[in-house]
Write a structure and sequence with these properties.
The structure holds 2 protein chains of 2 kinds. By secondary structure, chain A is of the alpha+beta class. Chain A contains 23 helices and 24 strands. The chains are: A alpha+beta, B mainly alpha.
């Protein structure tokens, strides 16, 4: 019996300490003498393939490795496009259909074994970026075998021959990459460093599209090496059978970009590490910005070569508490503010409280180019028949309280469908019904009752039929939002049923036009009002982008005129007229333009958030001495 | 004995098939725009259709009747050369073998069954193979759950033995009170308080695995959080055993209590305790959702939950299949070992 107890103790001891031994055998990352930025990220990184990128976290990570043709100036606001891998802005033909883009000649990819090895047999080679790499990039964006949610959305129906190429890809198996040899009429490499795009119809926003990281160059060698063969041990490789190949980049050794960093460790729900790319070309910190940037110290490094930081290290921290505690214990350089502690960190006038400032913590705020709204299904008989009912709901909804109560005041009331920073927002002015006025709402409700009575849509008791509001999400926030919404409707005597559902269910209901009212919104892809206005263009109902099912011939005619125009006062005037039409018709009730509050320690320099641009980690500087003095690592 | 094992194997196969069928029905019959969930709200309808086709979601779910009407309708003209598709027109009347094959095999369920059973499933979100995900993450999950189970079991046994030894004394009352108190405190509270405490004392140990010994923080929390329930269970088992006739006889014969406790009572308590432990083993691989999330352990803990919320159905079905397989296998082995040692089991 004694033997049993001794054995049990030994087994328990072994099981308890075995993980420590196994974990100690892992590869360790030491950065002695290097400047490291320590960050955290709250959601899994879905993609490290530029073609498949479709979420903010993935885009943020990818932008350290990949670079597109154009980028946004880091400091200037409103957002301004500048060349990145292109020599200059594109040369556009007078008919707006042909874009000729000259590419920088000295841009090298990060070293990778797909290019072969130097004479020492160990050091991977590199090569310069060529126009044909962008041709491949655009073909991959159109490849039906690759999940390209964002990349294809902006090219679908835009480039001559590209939709036909996508159809032809269906005849190939996923692992048969010979499809990339098919020609596409509208995408050609004129010479080694000149790319030409031929569009189906003018698309002035194309230059914004080319600033997205989804269209960063990918070398053909990567496809032919990493996606068609795999390591077989002893430095050898074995071919992957066509049936087993995947067309997507999924491993860190397959990420070959031109950016300032190389992805050296990638655990999509763990540790992600980027190290400085030694072959990165000379890029310098901007020398000009907004007037206040100099005062904020954002121009102290003007003209200096970037990146400043040697290593970017991010931990996956899905829970807000450990991320927050990690920031307070100076293990992370920056942090969001968890909603639970927001009021103990930020004062009512939205400033950082002194007790935090005294600890060397600084606040960075910026407005997201997004607008959230309550959408009205314009094909719903009741909502379509009575514009006054839509007006009444808009007037009765206390948006300011909604932002204060549910968002801790982290945002502003949008007064039309465009974010504040967009051209046309100020000129269009506030919508006459996008204000809180319960008395006016009740008056409008009487009008609505008359309109619905005329249409025979009142219920058996002569009342406005109960409404139905769908919210995407089953969490506590949506439950609270539902309660708040119910109060707003009941305030003026409207009955409403709140339905909480998961996001795919809401999407399907909206797609099938079964939702009456629903929570929705839009995050801008580029700083052009067209990006918001297309959501209300009648023919886009069939495309799925206009999900309010709003149709207005006058609006559609203005949109068709404006969408092919280059930036000009005339186009701005058309945009303003469209926004004013929406202000009157109210297909949506805008409820929030979110504002982001971030904290950083004093040793983090040059931190300015950009509403559209990614890839700005290269401008961040860490004062490592100050960090050590302040108790950081 | 052979017939018994065969019977149990057939039962196990049906059980696993049932689990897979239920998982399939739960996910495929539930409402929702799966393509939009994966592609995002900004894609076109054509992109959604392409996505559904690529992943086989445009096939009939359980039964494909597309070729039935080709058999039952009038014979087509001899020159008709077109092939029958899911919705296309009939060509030459297909033989029954083709119709039957298409009916059951050209369906979403057949694809699902084959890919899941052969572990060929890939994440709809990241395109990773499930088998790779498990290979990478399971060791981290096991690094928490195995020590937590072993240490928890050992500590619970020691504490339960002590309180049972001193039953109806102050030690027993205090022990039971603390055990009930521990059971009343939510698991999340243990985690948050524990992590806060470690952040105050030694921040570098409070998150991540930069130091292998950091693993002991979540393990300790798991042990403490689970101790109350285990102590209560083991104490009950020990006291049940302590009230048996053979214990009374042993004590009446003059054997000292420690000898009776450690030589007889604990030995006979092992059967229910070990059964409980063995049945818990299959779930160890799934890890601990909360501990992994809070302590930055890249295990499988949140894999299943995030796959469910993100509708990453191949991962859900693959993990469910794996768990069902291991669990059924564990139960099977336990039953077989019972049958070996207790012939009465074979007859039931």
């Amino acid at each position: 019996m004694v033997k049993f107890y001794v054995l049990a103790v030994l087994v328990v001891f072994g099981l308890v300490f075995a993980p420590v031994v196994l974990l100690a055998m892992r590869e360790r990352n030491e950065y002695e003498g290097k400047v490291v930025l320590y960050g955290s990220y709250p959601a899994k990184v879905k993609s490290i393939d530029p073609a498949t990128c479709g979420d903010t976290i993935s885009a943020t990570m990818q932008a350290n490795v990949y670079e597109p043709l154009y980028a946004y100036h880091y400091l200037k606001r409103p957002a301004e496009l500048i060349p990145c891998l292109a020599e200059d802005m594109p040369e556009v033909s007078p008919d707006g259909l042909t874009y000729t883009i000259r590419i920088l000649k000295d841009v090298k990819y990060a070293r990778n074994e797909c290019f072969g090895f130097e004479s020492d047999g160990r050091t991977p080679r590199t090569r310069t970026v060529r126009a044909e790499d962008f041709v491949l990039t655009i073909k991959r964006a159109a490849d039906v075998h690759i999940q390209t949610p964002m990349a294809w959305t902006f090219l679908s129906g835009r480039i001559r021959g590209l939709d036909e190429f996508r159809e032809r890809c269906k005849q190939y198996r996923e692992g048969d990459f010979s499809r990339y040899d098919l020609p596409v009429e509208g995408v050609t490499a004129v010479d080694e460093h000149t790319l030409r795009l031929t569009l189906v119809q003018p698309y002035p926003q194309m230059v914004h599209v080319l600033a997205m990281h989804s269209y960063s160059p990918v070398p053909r060698e990567l496809i032919d090496y990493h996606l068609t063969s795999e390591p077989a041990g002893n430095g050898q490789r074995r071919p992957i059978p066509v049936a087993q190949r995947t067309a997507q980049i999924t491993r860190p050794d397959q990420t070959v970009g031109t950016g300032p960093y190389i992805l050296t460790k990638f655990d999509r729900s763990g540790e992600i590490i980027f190290e400085r790319n030694p072959d990165y070309r000379l890029v310098t910190y901007p020398t000009e910005g907004e007037p206040s940037d100099r005062q904020k110290g954002l121009l102290e490094d003007a003209g200096k070569p970037v990146p400043f930081v040697d290593v970017l290290r991010y931990d996956f921290v899905p829970e807000s508490l450990p991320a927050w505690l990690g920031f307070l214990s100076r293990r992370y350089d920056t942090s969001a503010i968890p909603p639970d502690v927001f009021t103990s960190v930020i004062s009512p006038d939205r400033q950082l409280l002194d007790r935090w400032r005294r600890q060397g913590i600084e606040l960075v705020t910026y407005e997201e180019p997004s607008v959230f709204w309550m959408a009205f299904n314009m094909e719903d008989p009741v909502l379509r028949a009575s514009r006054s009912l839509r007006h009444a709901i808009c007037l009765a909804y206390d948006v300011e309280s909604y932002i204060d109560v549910l968002w801790n005041g982290r945002g502003r009331r949008p007064v039309n469908i465009l974010p504040d920073s967009f051209p046309g927002h100020r000129e269009a002015g506030p919508g006459p019904y996008y204000r809180y006025d319960p008395a006016a709402a009740r008056a409008k409700l009487e009008e609505a009752r008359r309109e619905l009575a005329a249409a025979g849509l009142l219920d058996a008791n002569g009342d406005i039929p109960p409404l139905s509001l769908d919210l995407g999400g089953l969490d506590e926030f949506q439950r609270r939002a539902g309660d708040f919404d119910r109060q707003q409707f009941e305030k003026i005597g409207l009955r409403v049923k709140i339905n909480l559902m998961d996001w795919p269910t809401l999407q399907q209901k909206v797609h099938n036009k079964q939702s009456q009212l629903y929570g929705m919104g839009w995050h801008a892809d580029y700083p052009d009002p067209e990006n918001f206005l297309q959501l209300f263009y009648g023919p886009n109902i069939e495309m799925g982008t206009n999900n309010t099912n709003y149709r207005n011939p006058e609006f559609d005619a203005l949109y068709e005129k404006a969408r092919v125009m280059n930036d000009s006062p005339e186009r701005l005037d058309l945009y303003v007229r469209m926004v004013r039409i929406l202000n009157e018709d109210c297909p949506v009730l805008p409820t929030l333009q979110p504002e982001l509050f971030l904290l950083k320690h004093a040793w983090v320099k040059n931190n300015k958030r950009h509403p559209f641009g990614y890839g700005n980690s290269k401008y961040i500087r860490i004062d490592a001495d100050l960090r050590r003095r302040m108790g950081g690592r | 004995m052979g017939a018994y094992i065969l019977r149990r194997l057939i039962q196990a196969a049906f059980t696993i098939f049932g689990v897979m069928l239920i998982t399939f029905l739960l996910f495929r019959l539930v409402a929702g725009d799966v393509a939009a969930a994966h592609l995002g709200p900004k894609v076109t309808e054509q992109q959604k259709r392409d996505w559904l086709h690529k992943h086989g979601y445009d096939k009939p779910k359980l039964i494909n009747k597309s070729l039935w009407r080709c058999r039952s309708g009038p014979a087509p003209p001899a020159s008709g050369a077109s092939t029958a598709g899911t919705t296309g027109s009939c060509g030459a009347r297909p033989p029954w073998s083709t119709v039957l094959k298409s009916t059951f095999l050209d369906t979403q369920f057949a694809d699902y069954l084959w890919k899941t059973a052969t572990f060929q499933t890939r994440s709809l979100i990241t395109n990773e193979r499930l088998i790779d995900i498990i290979r990478q993450r399971a060791p981290y999950s096991l690094a928490i759950t195995v020590p937590a189970m072993a240490l928890g079991w050992a500590m619970a046994m020691v504490v339960a033995t002590i309180v049972a030894y001193y039953r109806a004394s102050l030690i027993d009352y205090v022990g039971v009170f603390l055990a009930v108190l521990g059971m009343c405190i939510p698991y999340l509270a243990f985690i948050m308080a524990g992590q806060y405490l470690v952040f105050q004392l030694r921040p570098s140990m409070a998150f991540g695995l930069s130091n292998p010994f950091n693993i002991f923080v979540p393990v300790t929390i798991a042990v403490i959080a689970g101790l109350g329930g285990q102590v209560r269970f083991y104490r009950t088992v020990i006291l049940d055993e302590a009230n048996r006739d053979y214990v009374r006889t042993a004590l009446a014969k003059g054997l000292p209590l420690p000898a009776v406790m450690f030589k007889h009572i604990l030995r006979n308590c092992m059967l229910p305790i070990l059964t409980q432990l063995i049945l818990a083993i299959p779930f160890l691989i799934l890890g601990s959702l909360l501990l992994e999330s809070f302590f930055g352990i890249p295990g499988l803990g949140d894999q299943l939950l995030s796959a469910i919320t993100n509708r990453d159905e191949p991962i859900v079905s693959g993990e469910t299949y794996l768990t069902a397989l291991i669990y059924t296998l564990g139960v099977l082995l336990t039953d077989i070992s019972y049958a070996i040692f207790d012939p009465r089991v074979r007859l039931t």
